[in-house]
Design a protein that fits this description.
The protein is globular. By secondary structure, the protein is α+β, with helices and mostly antiparallel strands. The chain has a four-stranded antiparallel beta sheet. It contains two helices and four strands; from the N terminus they run βαββαβ. It comes from Neorhizobium phenanthreniclasticum. Pfam families: AsnC_trans_reg.
């Protein structure tokens, strides 16, 4: 399993709906609301064999109410 972080910008007034929908998927390890340019921060563990772009696009970014996503791939935890 490899961890990735995904930040989401939601349509105005849709952040809580998006967060609820993401929570119900049971795909994320951690889910936070954030301030600044992004509304939500997700920590997701995906299988080493999964293609990150396809996973994010099909499982996360396709949720209604999301305007934009930013995925960060991690290498080493210190």
């Amino acid at each position: 399993m490899k961890p990735i972080f995904v930040q989401l910008r939601c349509k105005p007034g849709k952040t809580y709906e998006v967060a609820d929908a993401i929570y119900k998927t049971e795909l994320v390890s951690e889910l936070y609301s954030t301030s600044g340019d992004w509304d939500l921060l997700l920590k997701i563990y995906i299988k080493d064999s999964d293609e990150i772009g396809r996973f994010v696009n099909e499982k996360i970014a396709s949720i209604p109410g999301i305007e934009r996503s930013l995925t960060t791939i991690t290498f080493t935890a210190f």
